[in-house]
Structure of Cytochrome aa3 subunit 2:
Amino acid sequence: MTDRADSTLGVFGAQSSLLPAGEGAAAALGLTNAMTLGGAAIFVIVMAFVWLAWRRQTGGRTWWILGGGVVFPLVVLALLFVASTGVLRAVAGGREDAALTIEVTGHQFWWDVVYDPGGLAIRDANEVVMPVGVPVRIVLKSEDVIHSFWVPKVAGKMDMIPGRVNETVMTATEAGRFRGQCAEFCGLSHPLMAFEMVAVPPDHFRAFLEDLQGDAADVAGPAARGREVFLEAGCAACHAVRGVAEGARLGPDLTRVGGRAALGAGMWPMNEGSLAGWIADVQDMKPGANMPSYAHLSGPDLRALAQWLGSLR
Ligand code: HEC
Ligand SMILES: [Cu+2]
């Protein structure tokens, strides 16, 4: 999962809803286009009538008033109703044929991701990997406040509400990395709560899941010291690394943290430098995050820790 796609925003970017790469987003774009063109046409017609009225070419005939003021709006609204109901079905429907379930839980300010909850229940964080062309049931929850799960290139957004379970189905129609963003104000660092949805061919997805099930790769050399620092500094109180420290869920699962394209929920490029900066001064990078800054770690320890985390993939 390396080689990060160009994450520029804008019309051609990884977060553009104008170049859809998913069924829900394509349906929403169709409706947007129809409404934009229809609205423009109606604007032109209304302006034509204004011009006629100004030139006093129409009388106050009841027929015009009933036709333009009642019948025409009713027809337009009825058409819109039918079209948007169809789009709603495309965005939310198809629940029965979803072969795979991914559960995403929002936290201030990161995403807990569980593949096949109830079955394999493999935990990861801050990246949602899914097979291309396969409808995936996305189960959405929150642990604290309301968040909203939105990948504009793939589908419409859906809220994550504490105490409630929301479900949607998303189908990516193209392989690629698509940027997602929390779309409901959730606190100080809400704008720093992004993620990536990674759509891969189905056989790659199976390989990814198999890889993910294993324990974190063990390392030798100077990075092995990083593992000791991780345990000594108490990181394991909040973070799990399978095979090293299990169970903690207050922070993202770090079993393959070095394999994620981005650090800090889709925000910074993943490398040893940004990892060291994060650990030493997370409160500066992401104000209000539920992790303390570790400014007191010695230089060599910090370096070893960053190196070890970077090697987990
Ligand atoms: C009190 C709980 C807590 C402790 C202790 C803690 N963390 Fe965290 N950590 C978090 C939370 C919460 C986040 C998510 C922050 C965010 O993005 O809002 C996080 C995020 C991270 C990330 C980014 C993960 C990603 O997917 O981008 C790394 C790396 C990390 N922590 C490493 C460490 C290390 C190393 C230590 C020990 C020196 C540590 N943490 C101690 C709670 C904790
Ligand atoms: Cu949020």
User: Anything to note?
Assistant: The mean pLDDT is 89. The CA atoms of residues 92 and 168 lie 5 Å apart. Residues 222-311 form a domain with the Immunoglobulin-like fold (CATH 2.60.40.420). The helical segments are 23-54, 62-92, 202-213, 222-232, 272-285, 299-311.
